[in-house]
């Protein structure tokens, strides 16, 4: 039976908000990924016009690039005849985008699908207060100088009082990270897990896990492992500069360094800090999916195969636990066990969130406490240290929201290829109370 092959995949360096990628719009970041994949296809002797569909993954969509996959595809060199759709499933968008491509390919509706993920968290907008916004709109519509002057005079005092809550601008990033369903910013959903006595996760546990993530990334960088999945980019600064590595990882860290970082979301009683949370980051990624028979006929090496996918809905205020249900469901659905997975990539939104998932996944008591209504049965089992995020995760690499899911897939498949092992599982919690997971298999060269 035909399967969905992931022929190739790569990503940009992940750069902290406000650093090397800050001046590149997300549609252009995506176009860079598309352009590189099209060139690789030409090198393989494949006409890029054979691409049937582009599926994008993005969350902070700029207002001048709606359906950002379409903009990135055409700017990246694809002909206008190739259609494009964009997925916006928060942190799970990249995994979902690959899933939708897989569904279309398995249904024989498409043969070749390009997935492109892009996010510029540096460029998320600042929103003016409604009264100022209305004045600005009125100013733009004023037909006389006298009217414009009158409106400008009314706006000026408000601009001088931007610290007043009534007139203060709002951060698009802050708004995007706050869940309308439960009224909590993502960090407070993490604090809810940290304060749950049944989970028993301390500040030191979180800091130790975060330091471990940095240590693994540093080790992977030294060994050249991450370079295998990164497409270096020339980016405009004072002159064009080459950016070829992730810049969020910290060297010479100690638990004392983490301990000095103050709680960010609950400043009096909290334990979740900027240091034990994922970083706000810019980045992009790309993957080429095709029918396995098409890949064979074209003589292409295959990085990996999509086995199956699962997503779930869960309590938005505890959204960090949602990977537990997604992982339990997909293991049951495919008849696999945790021990079958050589690599398990769980997106590190917060250290406490990942630690909480690990605890619930290995405890029947906690599984019953948090998921009794889901009929998931016993806990799937313990995840070993060597399985989990072997080259680090989002705490050290960063978390460009619409890109992270695709990064997990590329990273997992590259690790399977290096180790010669067969199966990997990737999963992410999703703001709004969702989670998704995908099982992958190693490809053939």
From TrEMBL:
UniProt entry keywords in alphabetical sequence: Acyltransferase, Transferase
ATP-binding among keywords: no
Domain Thiolase C-terminal, first and last residues per copy: 301-442
Top-level taxon of the source organism: Bacteria
Active-site residues from the entry: 91, 399, 429
InterPro entries: Thiolase, Thiolase-like, Thiolase_AS, Thiolase_C, Thiolase_CS, Thiolase_N
Domain Thiolase N-terminal: 5-292
GO molecular function terms attached to this record: acyltransferase activity, transferring groups other than amino-acyl groups
Family listed: Belongs to the thiolase-like superfamily. Thiolase family.
NCBIfam families, A to Z: AcCoA-C-Actrans (TIGR01930)
Protein name per UniProt: Acetyl-CoA acetyltransferase
Organism expressing this protein natively: Candidatus Yanofskybacteria bacterium RIFCSPHIGHO2_01_FULL_45_42
Lineage summary: Bacteria, Candidatus Yanofskyibacteriota
